[in-house]
Amino acid sequence: MAPPESTPILELEKMRKRGFWFRKWDSADITNLCLIIVRHVLGGCAPFVFDWGAFWVALVLLIFTGLGVTLGYHRLLTHRSFKIPKWLEYFFVYCGAHGGQKDPIFWVSVHKKHHKYADTEKDPHTPMEGFWFSHMGWFCHNQYIAAKCGESRSGEYSNVAELKAQWFYRFLHDTSIWHTVALAALLYLHGGFPYLAWGMGMRELVMNHFTFLVTSASHMWGQRPWNTPDTSTNNWWVAILTFGEGWHNNHHAFPKSARHGLELWQFDLTWELIKFLHMVGLATDVKVATEADKKRMALR
């Protein structure tokens, strides 16, 4: 009889043998896949119903929701790289909740596991499973994520107790899909199908693929100036597309740092916004990598 600790590994092997498509799909997997298909269909329709108003609305929403994920979900909630007033925290996080990447409890939990088990068997979106899986496949495999992380079900979220203790994040977790539906309805009522295609389809399509490049491309291609125990890389074009998240080797070397683009030429839009918030007194306790940290992590 296999010891208890081997059970997740055995379950993973069973899932691999069944493959990605020919497996048991739970309701969360089906919902995520349907949403991905819908946004791809809407995004594909967008160029054929081009409207300048819809384009500019989509661009503004892309900036706000993108910063909601990079500043709110990632650098604030996951790594606690700085502090801001609770009303401003909730604003950025709510913007991120419209990014098509699920609610903050799910997102932060998965990302914490990624850092804890980076590029190992337990990494929720390890590149060891291939580009497709690390880019997007993991997002539609709820039970696989749970098995990788040794949880009996993915809904436990045992590593984000601080978020589960707050009513706002519990509310978003329980109602996330309805916020997406409400935004889609508002866009459609305002400008019809072009606003829906651009404001929801094209925007979420672009944002999701750009974000997922951090979990795939930035663990496969790029430079590694820091001695990290994983395959994270600095990828300049991913950094441009993701408001600075593509300086991924920098981030894995100094995960608590609010600044990912450590060199002057490493553009990091999210860091520029954090600097501005600090300048006007809204951001405090901003953490950055020290010279001692850099010497410790430098490649010999």
What's the tally of helices?
14
Radius of gyration from the alpha-carbon trace, in angstroms: 19 Å
Helix content: 55-70%
The outline comes out as globular
Number of strands: 0
Strand content: under 5%
N- and C-termini, Cα separation: 46 Å
Low-pLDDT sequence parts: 1-7
Helix and strand composition category: mainly alpha
Q: What value does the average pLDDT take?
A: 87
How do the helices and strands follow one another from N- to C-terminus? HHHHHHHHHHHHHH
Largest sheet: none
Assembly type: single chain
Report what the structure shows.
With 300 residues, this protein is mainly α. The chain has a domain at 18-221. It has 14 helices and no strands. The protein has helices spanning 7-18, 27-45, 52-78, 86-97, 104-116, 131-135, 142-148, 161-164, 167-191, 193-215, 236-241, 248-253, 269-279, 291-297. Helix 3 (52-78) packs across helix 5 (104-116), helix 3 runs parallel beside helix 10 and helix 9 packs across helix 10 (193-215). The longest helix has 27 residues, at 52-78. Mean pLDDT is 87; it is low at 1-7.
Task: Describe the secondary structure blueprint for this structure.
Elements: H1 7-18, H2 27-45, H3 52-78, H4 86-97, H5 104-116, H6 131-135, H7 142-148, H8 161-164, H9 167-191, H10 193-215, H11 236-241, H12 248-253, H13 269-279, H14 291-297
